[in-house]
Structure prediction request, 963 residues.
Amino acid sequence: MAVQGRKRSGKNVVSLLLASTILGYVGVMAVSASAEAQQSGSVASATVGFNIPAQPLGKALNSFIKSTGWQIGYSSALVDGKQSAIVSGKLTPETALRTLLSGTGIEIRMTGPKTASLLAGGQAAVGADGAILLEAIQVQSKSGQSVLGTSSIADTGTTTISGGQLNGRTGGSGDANSVLRNMANVQYQNDVSTDSGITDQSLIDLKPKEVSISGARVYENNFILNGMEINNLTGSVDQFRSESYLITSSSTDFNNMFGLHSQTIYVPVDFVSGTTVIDSNASARYGNFQGGVVMYDLDNPSRDRWRASVTTDYTTSDWAKFNLLTPTGENSNDVARNDYMRRRSSVSVSGPVTDNIAVIGQYSTQSALTHKDRSTKYVDTSRIEEDSKSDFYRLQAVAETDLGDFTLEGIYNEYGQLWENWIWRDTPLNMGSESFATKLQHNYDFEDFSLGGVEISNVKLKSILSYKKSNSFNDGGANEARVYNQNLVRTSTGEILWFSKELDDWCQKEPGTKTVTTCIDGGLGYKEQGQEQWSLSEELTGDVFLGSFTLGAVYTNTDAYRRRPEEYTYNLANAIIHNFPAVGSGFVCNGADNCSPEQFAITKQVFSAYDISKRLNEFNVYGEVDQTWERLNVRAGLRASYDDYMRNLDLAPRFVTTITPFEDFSIAAGFNRYYNGATLAYPLRELVPRYQLWTRTQSGGVVGPWNPGITQAPYENTASGLETPYNDEITFALSGKDPLLDGQWRLRFLDRRAREQFASEKITSTSSKLTNDASGAYQSITGEYSKDLDTGDIEALDALSFNASVTWSRSEMSNNTYFETSLDDNFILYHDQSYTEAGFSVVTGNMDIPIRFQAGFASSWFDNRLNVDVSANYNLGYRGARDTGDTITISGLQHAIYEDYDFSPTLTIDLSTSYEVYKSKDRGLTFNMKVGNLFNETGNAKTNVARPWSIGRTVWVGAKATF
Prediction:
């Protein structure tokens, strides 16, 4: 069954994407029509510290690119056999590049503020229009490694991943969030779970992997895509049911929104040029998080010529390794392995329109398909087909003008994932979303000036106007569902006492000795939740005194909603004629709904239509200075936030001081506060109406009218008036370069204290309220190393990079979500002592993988035609506690029984390889293969008899053509 949705406007949104981008592009062209192409003199005059020794020129250029972020175009033959000159000291990038190339006979042609082409001196042809005609070139970017820190020495909590290191971490999934796996202070695994078996939904779920950063919940991070925040302010967690309810229940919760996610746009890894993660010591420019900041940089337009690429990847259950991990090692219920297919394809086209305008267009699509069995009580015995699909569209235009650089970008993402309740007749539920984001960005460089005798230089103003709209929906078809009785069976003998003739064509007696067989028909109705957001940000940076300064302001307006457009009815109990022998020939309906001579509904739940909306105005201002006095660096900043829902003025200080006692070694200490108050999850849920119960009876066979029951009070989840949750952070870091290999290393200690956290507290049996009573803590010690290795003596090896990290961590969190009542209601028995779930967490600390190791290699061979990237993750064994699955009642309270458990060490290795089988100038064809969990390591995963299978090794194959 194909994924379908109601009230979806994908074509309209795509049209809007195209129209807005084209109109903005035309506007930019009009503004820049009279501007001449910028020459090398327009390159930023900021100086950078260089220390590049004399070495093979290709390697020296890679070092230059890593230090500056520039893009350099050149042919491989141009640099082969040439040595670079030494570059040392603080220089402008252009001066450093010319110094690097001195004596090589190579000339530079500046093609943009941070782009250049290299050509042989005196050999460049000149076209009729005076333009230099270059030979075929390759664009070099940052090498495939993990870069620790940034140009600011205070950024000890920042890591950037690109190239082969990025490819090696994905395991072939195509999910950009999978790149974060096992990074320092990033958790995504759960050893404690005893229910890690695959399901039909986990196999086709194409949404990004949710991750916890520095001990925070998975929805407390700030995801930024090309400068646009893509966070779900309407909430990705409901207080009604968890996502697992789709799998474990024969019904569903009619108020719950399933398939929600913390991100509004699902980023495909195909277009990601680099991923930056900030897990601590975040600059004051970043807010709205308690975990970490994740920034995705997508491909930039090609400026030297038109380029295109087409990729495709495929995997199937036939290539996967299924593991049976039940406690007994047996498949007692004879559950079949889930079949699946997953595909991914993408297209990218970019190039220059004029000397100063370049564009890029990209499209990616992912799909998945699986099947599952239908309940045996239905006449239709065909297997249920479920599928999912994610489409991603992007257009960007960049113009360099005398008025500054303009960037106009539009992104549209459409997602659909189908679930069908196997215990119902035919009830597909499409858990989908549509998201659109666009921005107009202007970067302007000012001339150096003096203000009151203070020299200010390298001043830049970045302005971003963005518009984002997202809508998540659950489309379950009809707004009514009915429960029917098929038969009545005498349990002791199996004798059929009554059998429905009206249901013969679709509902049959279920095998076994059940007292009654019930069949359910109908739909699950339609619900949606979304947000529309405008944002304007201004950021001014520059150099002053002995360092730099940053000033910024952000205003964001968000209109959010949650609605059920039409009333929904669930008829959940029927009376059958067998129980009323005096009725005679059957019930008399007289036009009553859900009534027939054989049976009629005696109870129903009615869920009212509703339309809840909330507007949020958020104001953020921040300032920061970064100053260096010889060997002492201080970065001090303050971020102030206010919104008209929480109505709290939140002041978040950020302070890092660093001492460099000698070259290539520094000691840093920091104190930072992070607030996460910009959310509308609570007001959108507090007014959701609870159902009203209706009942009716019969008299003499005549079915009577419906009579209303008790109307339950609405939910209460008001956060307004409470304190804004925040984290206080203390950090210590040692960093530098090793004296033997000149690689980057970093050793850090992180302590986070979560304060004023939200928790639910029951006030009646049907309602609860939010409080600030929850808390948490996270501590970690991490060690990291990254190195671009010298391959000069290894024949055929063009590049090799290595990174490794080790993380020890522990965490304590009162509850898993803001809507969870675990502070009071969930109880655990451990070592014959009763704990609340919150108290148990505090006593035992982190139950999930205290010590983790990670390592990765990225290599290029044979003139970059063969690439081999490997990522390895190792979890050290430890003693923890695990749910036995048994329960016990103590003083009237049910307790889950936990026991000590020795978790074994686990090693998983992912492999990514590609080989360019055809190459002719700028055209090429590459085949690739990615293997996730190469050695099929099952680790500590456990499954239950209902879902006994776990997938270990997976294999993806694909190809990429470039033009």
In short: The chain has two domains: 10-28+148-448+461-479+523-567+608-679+719-962, 29-142. The radius of gyration is 31 Å. Residues 577 and 598 are 5 Å apart (CA to CA). The longest helix spans residues 10-32.
